[in-house]
Amino acid sequence: MAKLIKPSDCPKCMPDWLATFGDLMSLLLCFFVLLLSMATMDAKKFENAIGSLAGALSVLEGGSRPQVQKEQEMSLETSTRETRAKLKSENEIMKTASAINQLLTASGSPEVSVEEAEDGFILRLPASLLFSKGKAQIENDDARLFLKRISMVIAKLPSEVNTNIIGHTDDQKPDIDSIYKDNWQLSSARAITVAQELINNGVDAKKLIASARASYNPFASNDSEQGRAKNNRVEIHFVSLDKKEKEITKKSILDAGQ
């Protein structure tokens, strides 16, 4: 006689809701497959994507580069050209400074120096190279030749580079018989003289700025003769006027005035 099985002895089966859930997932899968089959591929975007990937990884070949990538490369190329022009100008000035330094070292005068700045570079000329003590007239032919070489370098600089000529002195007042009443007059006269000499050698006057700091920006200590000789100088600042930096500066100034 067969054994009767009680309902409680039956193995547990899959819940009823799980079958419904499985059917729903199958329907959703079919729905998305149908959408994909009806979609059209944008060939241009696909080509640009492949080109961008090829340029980034340097693995794939073919494909065109997106416009954004082309603009970035053009910007990088322009920046590279400007950097090369700056380095070339610095090298030319360094060569000129090195040549004149050989003469200055033999005579015991302070050396010409070139220093890189945040927005360009600075050429420092000892006043003894250009002027007699307490004067602002260039009477030395070697000094005129040196400034002529500098003029040739300035002429090759990019149009966005300005040249700022700044006169400096030590803390000693001009002699009582000097035509200059104080160091402000002496330093400004020397800066203007150098600017005029550069203009005479063909430099565009619009690219030049002449200013003076008297004894208020010393390069060395005024306690020794050597220090005072270094402080008596004319600096030529080569400043890059980048358009983006100019706009930022202009905006900051306008904001400060409000």
Beta-strand content bin:
5-15%
Coarse morphology: elongated
Major beta sheet summary: 5 strands, mixed
Structural class computed from helices and strand pairing: alpha+beta
DSSP helical segment count: 8
Average pLDDT number: 74
Roughly how many Å is the radius of gyration? 37 Å
In total, the number of strands is 5
Low-pLDDT segments: 57-66
H/E series, N to C?
HHHEEHHEHEHEH
Distance between the termini: 105 Å
Question: Strands across the major sheet, in which order?
Answer: 1-2-5-3-4
Question: In which range does the helix fraction lie?
Answer: 40-55%
Write up this protein.
- With 258 residues, this protein is of the alpha+beta class.
- Helix content is 53%, strand content 14%.
- It has 8 helices and 5 strands, in the order αααββααβαβαβα.
- It has helices at 16-38, 43-57, 67-107, 127-130, 141-155, 183-200, 225-231, 243-257; strands at 113-117, 120-126, 161-168, 208-214, 233-240.
- It has a 5-stranded mixed sheet.
- α3 (67-107) runs antiparallel to α5 and α5 crosses α6 (183-200).
- The protein is elongated and about 115 Å long.
- Mean pLDDT is 74; it is low at 57-66.
Task: Please outline what is shown here.
This protein has helices at 16-38, 43-57, 67-107, 127-130, 141-155, 183-200, 225-231, 243-257, and strands at residues 113-117, 120-126, 161-168, 208-214, 233-240. It has 258 residues and is an alpha+beta fold.
